[in-house]
Amino acid sequence: MTASPPGPTEVYVVIEGAIGVGKTTLAPVLAQRLGARLLLERPEDNPFLPRFYREAAQAAFSTQLSFLLQRAGQAEQLRQRELFGSGCVSDFLFDKDRLFAELTLSRTDFALYERVFERLAWGLPVPDRVILLQAPVAVLKGRVDARGREYERDLAPDYLARLIDHYGRFFRDYRQAPVIEVDTTVLDPAHVPDHLEQLLAALTDPAPHQRLPARRLL
């Protein structure tokens, strides 16, 4: 069955993509344009994240579990869809949490993580649309360096490359909601009004998978 376009009072849109791709920049712009509430991830609240970037193997499980509990607490609000009568725009997809876990955890840690994930994920609503922002490794690394977070300074390009690959495979098989791919090296809906209008038009299209037309920025 094809999904129908979300109505103005029911839209739940998730913006996804790898580190540094621009999720948190676009989310408030889109929320304001849609008249929707905003639900943002809070990486700065994860006390294990700085250590993860220094010692990934030692800090992976605690970092991942902290993110999982944080995201579950935020997403819990979405169980009561009536609280979001004006809609909601979020810069994270709860199901995506498993993607990072697969990338960073050992087999035994991932098995334990999966048990916790399944309990927390029960009953959470799925989005009406997912916007997948994309950019190559060099662009992501440049954006991450430019925002100047100390703990991200040593983020390895090979980690970003593996993350991009995991995102690609995850969303190729994602069937819970229509996915709109946006190449952020070509389109900039957070800052270019015409590009934002293209994205808004795509949100009303029920096609299961879209790629916005590429064109050069002015």
The figure for the number of domains is 1
- The CATH class label is Alpha Beta
- Strand segment tally: 6
Q: Determine the strand fraction and express it as a percent band.
A: 5-15%
Describe the global form: globular
The percent of residues in helical segments reads: 40-55%
Query: Which structural class do you get from the secondary structure elements?
Result: alpha/beta
| Major sheet | 6 strands, parallel
> For the record, what is the CATH homologous superfamily label?
P-loop containing nucleotide triphosphate hydrolases
Overall pLDDT level: 86
Helix-strand string: EHEHHEHHEHHEHE
CATH architecture: 3-Layer(aba) Sandwich
CATH fold title: Rossmann fold
Poorly predicted runs of 5 or more residues: 1-9, 214-218
Sequence of strands across the biggest β-sheet: 2-3-1-4-5-6
Number of contiguous helices: 8
From the N-terminal CA to the C-terminal CA, the straight-line distance is 39 Å
Using the CA coordinates, give the radius of gyration.
Answer: 17 Å
Task: Please give a structural write-up.
The chain has 8 helices and 6 strands. It has helices spanning 23-34, 49-54, 56-75, 97-104, 107-121, 137-147, 157-172, 193-203; strands at 12-16, 37-39, 88-90, 129-134, 179-183, 209-211. The protein has a single domain (12-211), classed as Rossmann fold. A 6-stranded parallel beta sheet has the order 2-3-1-4-5-6, with helices on one face. It starts with 11 loop residues before the first strand and ends in a 7-residue tail after the last strand. With 218 residues, the protein is of the alpha/beta class.
